[in-house]
Amino acid sequence: MLVNGEATPLTIARVNNSYKITSAELGLVLQIVSGDGSVVPLDADGNINAEEGDLVDVQVSGARPDDDINIWMFSTPIQIGQGSVSEDGTFTGRFGIPSDVDNGRHRLVLKTVSFTGSESTVTIGFIVGSGNNGNSAISAIIYATLGIAVFVALAIPARRRRRKKLATA
User: Fold this and answer.
1) pLDDT of residue 132
2) Fewer C-beta within 10 Å: the chain N or C terminus?
3) Considering only CA atoms, which of 86, 79, 92 is closest in space to residue 18?
4) What is the radius of gyration, based on Cα positions, of the chain?
5) How far apart are CA 5 and CA 152, in angstroms?
């Protein structure tokens, strides 16, 4: 979390398939809700996973009343939501994952002003798309290279042994 552009200590907890983030300035609960209204579970590594049509559920506390909240999604900047903080300093909203977002890793960025008047920014990584098991093209290249190396390491000694046998026979 950044407060007035400076990194700020915070606490992050996974609670009921959501992330609860708190700092001295602001509180945030974020989860993904599917089209049928059920909370999308975090994966085994604690990653937030979303699909096209899912909703980002955001609950903020400690924000300055009547100020704005903006929620952006990056790799390509897309504003997926905005709203106004209520008189008690809270905000609750649900915003759709855009249909034209590429599968892969993205960031959600929430910007608002805390009750103390500090500009606050929270950034959370998440994954869009089914079948994204964390393997990337780079992982495939690494596995292919290792496979070739193992094959060569096994084939060369066997071939040398065969040549030695033929030479001695």
Assistant:
1) 44
2) C
3) 92
4) 24
5) 52
User: CA triplet 105, 49, 42: central angle to 5 degrees?
Assistant: 130
Please tell me the distance from the alpha carbon of residue 21 to that of residue 169, in angstroms, as a whole number: 74
Six token digits for residue 119: 């500009």
Buried b (16+ CB within 10 A) or exposed e, 96-128: ebeeebeeeebebbbbbbbbeebebbbebebbb
Residue 48 and residue 56: Cα distance in Å, rounded? 10
The residues pairing with 30 across neighbouring beta strands, listed in sequence order, are: 19, 58
Q: What is the mean pLDDT of the chain?
A: 83
- Name the nearest CA neighbour of 37 among 62, 55, 12, 19: 55
Degrees, nearest 5: CA angle 148-152-156: 170
Rounded CA-CA distance 138/129 in Å is: 18
| pLDDT over threshold 60, residue 129 | yes
- Token duo for residue 117: 């008047």
**Token pair 């709203």: residue:** 83
pLDDT band per the 50, 70, 90 thresholds, residue 109: very high
